[in-house]
Design a protein that fits this description.
alpha+beta; 8-stranded parallel sheet; 7-stranded antiparallel sheet; 11 helices; globular
Length: 862
Amino acid sequence: MTYTLRNFLASIIIIGAVAAVCSAASESFITGDVRIQPLSETLVRMEVRGPKGFEDRPTFHIQNRDLGCAEAEKVVRRDNLIVKTSAYSVNIPQNAENLDKAYITDSAGKKIWSKEGDSKYFPIITRWPNSGGGFLYDKGELLGHAENGNTDEFLWKKESKGGWFRLKNKATGDYIYIDSGKDKVYAGKPDNIKKAEWKGESAGAGYVRLKNRAYPKYYIHIENQKGYAEAATKETINDTNTPLTRWYSANWKLDKKSINRRYLPEPTEKTKAWMIADEPRYVPSRWEYNPAPEGVENNGWDMSNNAEDIYVFLPQGNWKRLRQDFIELTGKTNLVPLYALGGWDSRYHPYTQKEALNKIKKYQSKDIPLDVFVVDTDWRVGASIGYDINKKLFPDMERFISNAHDLGKKIMFNDHPEPQAEALEREEVLYRNDGLRGLFDIGLDFWWFDRNWHTCINPPEGIAKEVFGMYIYDAVTRDYYPHRRPLIMANYDGIDHGKINRPSNIAAHRYSIQWTGDTRSHWNSLKDEVRNAVFAGVYGPFPYLSTDVGGHMGELTTEQYCRWVQFGTLSPIFRLHCGRKYTRDPWDYDEPCESVVREFMQMRMRLLPVLYTAARENYETGEPIIKRCDLLYPEYEEAKTNHQYLIGDDILFAPVYEPMKDSPKRSLWLPPGKWINAFTGEVLEGGEKIAVELNLETAPLFVRSGSVIPLAPNMLDTTKKPWEPVTLDIYPSSKTAAKAELYEDDRMSRDYEDGFYRETAFSCKPEKGGKVLNVKISEADGAYQNSLKTRSWKLRIHKPEGVKTISKVLADGKKASFKTIRKDSGKMPFAVEGGSPDGDVFEITLPEKSVYQSRNVKITFE
């Protein structure tokens, strides 16, 4: 089409010049009651004017809007305002009063997001919290139910028709219907549309029973947990003689998607656009959770400028970019102190002062590492609520805590916060501060906020008690110990007693250790907890999920105990736990239980450099400590399993969650490349499924061929030894170069936030077809208080296939010696001395030098 100047001016008028939008407060584009702020090339904010105007202050959900720079221009085309960047354009009617007609196009002009399209679909969720799968989804022919609820197959919209409605799937366009058989519920296109029409009968608490139009006596339920939905009449009874009218499994919530509760998108989705909302929009007090002066409403929180305020992420298919933007906007997860990655002992049990100290000493006498000892609710009078110490059990609590500190242990107390008033009322703020700080005054290290009780705090409207409770305990801890990292443990917002029931609040990930609730001890519970640990890091940036290792309720067989421990020691947080009737003490079980705890915990302590470096990476990027395989291998469907994971990039672990009598082998998927069985030395080609023979003392654990793993010395807690020497555990490849990094800081303070930390890079490069291995330790980058200025190193090189011995070693240009240590099948992987179970090891020691000098070792094989 040829445009005349007049036609051109009629269709497009440039209103403003190009603006470099480099912070949320600097530049914005306003039309009517709407403000558009391009925060970066991959994130845009759209906000409706609130009662007090547009909002530039940090809010409870949104901590930082200064995410970079996006050049944008303002254009009017017909009646639309367009805010255009090089990556996207935001379109909205001129003089808009709301965001209902807002949409976004990519650089090619293709619509990739609209407010209308994002808000009309919703999940269908059961009222039954322990259903084992409370979200309905299009399973193909059948209507399925599952726990995840994070893809378009789980989203539905209503199409109303004469007092009835149809439920249409976003991914497939299928309808939910029942047919003449009436027992199963289908997803598809029925021959009679009335079979797909429903009415919601109130079931209380915002839930409905779904009644079919064609078969009006029939209702949808998942009572039998078959993986697909069924239909039954009201008169149908279950195995406890309860009629359908009283089944929570037949109660459904058809609601809009909560936009302050979101799962992160599937990493393999190649997401173009994804939205969150600052809803409700509350501005925290300048006093945080310290008591504000008397007479200040809501303890100084401003809750009067609520308005629609949404953030659309536009990562162009890059899941890492989306995750990075998300944590920069909503807040990073607190980096835990190093001791939190050590061993924990926890039990719901009325310890006496003497009994608790003796148990700590027993761990030491047994050479089982321990860093944290947990005193559950019995530390207080009445063993339930309040902050008065039970002096019958702990006659001198301050001395107990001091004695535990002398033994190198940190102490955590459980708290069930009974409300005195609403969470931001003065009476409650004073009471909570007095109680929590009073125990800090006598040396308590950190709190466990536990909402699994008959009482809990009363949060502000629209914010879950889990996440607001986390905020309270974090804020008080942060204020009391301003130089320490504010460690807390709290319920995971969205997992109830091991069952995934809903997405978390978009602020919940900021608070470090989150616990999956009171779980059971059986095999299915162990399998669920493996899934939960992986799921939390994929669909939310939650790095430190904590399970009750062994389960809160139930007896354990020897085999179950070993499998729980093996999983726990190779997960982010290892915390043995049980209820009053049980024990998880390693010495109370038959062998090999005690040996398994000892050997796997000692191995975990040696792997702390890997875990701690991954924890720092999470702080920077939001990537999980344990990674589902599709985060690194998105092109493989098998990589999406939630029941195996990578620790870092080079260690693969597949926990065992079935008895060997039923499953003598563990099936798992190996990523591409060569992988070494860490217990046997067998080298396997990846890219396919394998089956591993099982025994009780080991678990399926693999190391990538062509990797270097930094290891700490053997230690029983994190307080006694610096990492000196550091051992580089090297698994050479004849083709693939290896690289890794060591992160260090002072392990306790918040100085890392201000740049006080150190990183050291390593690489191992094969040369001459693998006959030569070139190992480089780069000079350290950075420093922190009391950091080691010099360090020695130990290289343990696992003998490659086809190699007989080493003919020459040059260390920093000089000839050096080595020793050969023969294979020892009775040892554990990732050892820093002695034999290794996978094969012979060549050991080279580098004498102490400045950490700011690079080191180079060239090894020639024969």
